[in-house]
Amino acid sequence: MMIQTLPQGSASPKLSREVLDRLYQPLKDLQAGGDLSVVSQILDILTPLQDAVGDELLLNSPAAWDLLIRMADTYDSDMPFLDFFWTWRMSLASFYSMLLHPLPEARVYHAVSTGYAGLLAARASLETHRPILLTEHGIYTTERRIEIAMADWLYEAPSEDIKIEGSGQTLRDIWVKTFITYSRACYQACSKIITLYEGNQQLQIEEGADPEKAEVIPNGVDYAYYVNIASERDKYPPTIAFIGRVVPIKDVKTFIRACGMVLPHVSNLRVLVLGPTDEDEDYFQECQNLVSFLNMDDHLEFTGKVQLGAYLGQVHVIALTSISEAQPLVILEAGAAGVPSVATNVGACKEMILGRTNEDPPLGAGGAITPLANPGATAAELTKLLVDDAWREQCGRAIKERVRRYYQKTDLDRTYRALYDHYRHAPDTPPFPVSTA
Amino acid sequence: MAGIGFVLRKLSQQDNLLGVVHGFAHASLASVGPWLLTIVSLSSIIIFTANAVPTPNLDNFRLVVIYNFAFSLVFSGPIVILLTRYLSDRIYEKEVKEAPGMLLGGLSIAYVTQLPLVLFFYFYYVEFGDGTRIAAVLNFFLITSLWIVGIFLSALKGYKFVTGSFAIGLLCSSLGAIWLAPIFDDAGMLAGFNFGLAIILFSLISRIFAEYPYAIVNPFGFLRFVHTYRILVVGGLVANFSIWIDKWIMWFAPAAETFGNRMIAYPDYDSAMFLAYLFTVPAMALFMFSVETSFFEKQFKFIQDIHHHVSLTRIRANHQAILSDLGQSARNLVVLQVSITITVILIVPYLFDALEINFTQLGMFRLGLLGAMFQIFFQFMFIVLSYFDLRKPVLFLHLLFLVTNAGFTLISIALGFPYYGYGYFLASLVTFMVTFVVTLRYLDQLPYQVFVRNNASVQ
Fold this sequence. Notes:
By secondary structure, chain A is of the alpha/beta class. Chain A has helices at residues 13-32, 36-46, 55-60, 62-72, 81-100, 115-128, 140-150, 171-189, 198-206, 223-227, 252-262, 281-293, 308-312, 329-336, 349-354, 375-387, 389-406, 409-424; strands at residues 109-111, 132-136, 192-195, 214-216, 239-243, 270-274, 300-304, 317-320, 341-344, 367-370.
């Protein structure tokens, strides 16, 4: 299936006009942030037409042009028309292609994102009444929102004066709201809405996912491998490791500053930055300068890309200062080896280190969570873990146990196999009620 | 998924909507002046040599000139239209370094493709003296060259220079032909005529090299676009073919003549039609003026504004401006041409008396006047459609005229002498009516045509 590729189709002008007249309202709703009922209405209009529907009828016919104009007229009168034309055409071509291509038959449909994949899944649900699963790693609509906000390909008219009147709807709104429609439709059609951690789940619920269907299935690590890494920590001075690429999003500078603040308390401190340094040479240079500035040249080593297993046995504590993460597996890999972590409060870090809200029995802290870009807070937690051996060992045990119980890769496979088995044999889902209000 | 933004950016930056093809309009309109001058020159040659040269030799001259103009126009049509388009694209890109090379490439392709047929015709088929044969072949290629050179000059818009060159050159033609006629008969007339044409050709070529002072590069580069512009190339052939097809068919009418030199023609029909076409010159001048002044400006603004991301409201206003401008121009043109045509139809007997024209041509001439009127009306609409790069409908309309002109003319021959001329007249009328409907429809749907139907990014 190719996105935006439609069959040619052949329809009389009269039929085109009829069909497109009926499509007007649902398409407006689609661009204004609709839900599954919009997809259902449009599908109900297009499906009976079979071979007649395609590029010609939906996009290229004079009737399609009239529809485009009719829709353009509902937006601000100063919206750049060339860009509206392409937005309309590209977004609808993609949309229609998801609705028109032949759908493979299956007992369960599993989408790995909302957006177009989710739209296709929603259509599968409407057509086959079979269960739909969704696993979202990042929240698609949020990512799309960021991409569209940053898109330089969307022309923005230079505003000559401050506008007060008008709907204020921009092309960006059309794109964003269309994607919101897709994600809502997908959430509504789904039997299970899965993501990696609770923070994302919260976002899904805000975007319209039914909390009843929402489930967290975290990624897992190879527990058996990491748990067997022998500890050589006694042979090494107190060691902090940063595991990750040396790039701005990981905020390595905050990490270096934090280590600088730990140094007065732990004079024989050893710091390792385990990860490639060649992705952003300028940033790496700045980090090296910072290390020299803080007189840490004798303490801190950039190792470049390494095999993590070879180092974990030497490390006392992991630090992670990223400004954005989903579910960083290093916390789990180190955790399985009994190494606690200090991480910023991003993505799934908090629930991996401190446990999920419904953890039973509570296993206790496996390290600490700190605010973003706060070297002082990171330093304080790192110092505490390095100087207080009992606390460090307690955290190490807690995180190891948490990984054993909840974050094993073998569990993940088993969970999904069980989900597939369950829904494969599940009865058809009830037909979607179309609200005609 | 990340690909969508990329594709959209690519599409919104493409320039496919902008088909600046006003070269076509110039090419067809800038030729009015040279055309009139040529007619004056030829008439003067024939009038002033009538007593000095025997009639068969006079016929030779007349026939060679008619044949050469007609066939060189038709044969050169495809390459002329291809070069016109290629050159206007290069001008739009402000990258005209290839122009001198194109000129030589275009000329050599025209020569190589046409030479065998022309040699065969003048050296084997036609019964001429050797001097006449050589002069006739030279004449053919001088005229072919002028069609091709004309492209570059209409792009330069050097109307005054072109018209001046033709005036001087054709004066030399006339004087040369009249001077050489008593000495060398038809060969002399052609040689004299050729002398003037050569003056025109070389003065125009020198102007082109002066305007485009670049080395000869990539002389056959334009051939890459034969496929891209195949509709135009075919259109170029069909357009010129359709203009001549009724004359050629009439050459086989029972009343047509086969001359001693084995050439055929129907002088009564041919001259009636040429004369009729002359009466469209004022309308052509007016149309040229309208296109150059207001229409081109409004069309350019319409297209340019779209690329400057204007709102739908502005696009609608620009569309309206084009429609009202065209409406006004059309009204003026129709009033002018209808008045001329009716007046001439009414005074034909006096006109023929005064010009001592054979009255058997009277019926054909009146039909020719009406046919020419409708023909220039639809040709004006072709030009308007070409401005918006609507190649397919234009090709279809050219084909329609070709088929109707051929079909109706054949029928008119079958029906007999009283019906001669009806073929051309009815073909023009039918083509005009269809073109009118098509043009109105296209103009009404102009934004749709420009954005969807005629947008290469969409197809």
